Amino acid sequence: MKIKRTRNFYVGVTIAAVVACLAIAQYTLQTVASAQENGGGNRAGVYEVDRMWPKPLPNNWVLGSTVGLSIDARDHVFIVHRGQASLDQKFASQMAFTPPAPRGGGAQAGGAPAGGFAAPAAGNTVAGYAPSDMTKPISEFCCSAAPPVLEFDPEGNLVRHWGGPGSGFEWPPSMHGITIDGKDNVWLAGNAGHTILKFSKDGKFLLQIGKNGASKGNTDTANVNRPAEVEVDMAANEVYVADGYGNRRVIVYDADKGTFKRMWGAYGKPPTDDANVTYDPTRPLATNWQTVHCAALASDGLVYVCDRVNNRIQVFRKDGTYVKEAQIAKRTLGDGVTFDIAFSKDAQQRLLYVADGANHRVWQLLREPLLVLNHIGNGGRYPGQFYATHNVSLDSKGNMYTVETYTGARLQKFTYKGAANVAKPEGNHN
Q: pTM of the predicted model, to two decimals?
């Protein structure tokens, strides 16, 4: 009888253990399935540069410093660039040339322009030739700056172009950001003026916020001061401005009327005109922003702000309530890390993409907890490399696009190849 009871006890324990193991296995499978459905814990996007995208521009056009990028609901890609004044100096000097003086020292036909020819930059002249007055084209083959605003279809064809000074608005002295809202309106910011401009997709002027030369600083709600870019909240009909080259704030306006709604500075405090504190990675972070370079709105209503020179991202609710912050590559000096932010296309927007113009790459982060998984690209001129990565954006299929400022001056496409596990996250390099 005792042996039978013992046997029954062990059988009961075994059955209980099997049931427990099955329950654990079921939970594990459900967890794994859920993780896979949501993109997985440490899964990051895999990308391949498309070397043939976009297609060559017409009319021998070339890009200057390319400083704005946005994608509409049709996956059309819009960019804005700074044009002739921002072209690589050597390249620009070869677009037009002054003929050589006649042999024997005679005067050049037509003479010099009033005031003489401008002195060339070192290395930009050819022996025996006078400095260029930039008025005589070298040939019919090369080159001129493209119009400021360019629109490409998903195949990389240029389908529309426009922009420049016009009637009824003040075109920024230097372009910076471009945003396409849910109604296909085009918003432009310029980091050398005091305005935000709104146009239809074909370039019809709709609205100007601010007036050039009128900014009175961080407490002035009628004007911006060298804004970087905007983000549009269609549900609330509000436009968020990263007002960050002259001012150091996020300011929100009504998207139709341009009337002021609210604003905030670092940590959700009121913006001030306090002097900038030079960034020092060995010291505690400044309580003010330096260059507010982006204000990106996630689908859950959180606002991600690029504090570029301080190498940090600060997160807020829409009312300016501070949530958290994180730095990336905190020892980076110069221009700083956090140039622009984009979100992955899954429903949860698990991943955050950060364009890093100082380290010439795009970081992939888990949006929660702002942890760097890995990076895409490095410094260089080949396709897939970067020189001064300025903006990043994703289309509806998850393909990634980037533009490069300074003499990087290009637009690149990276085709999404799915997601892969990251065995060991790279970390934030802090």
A: 0.83
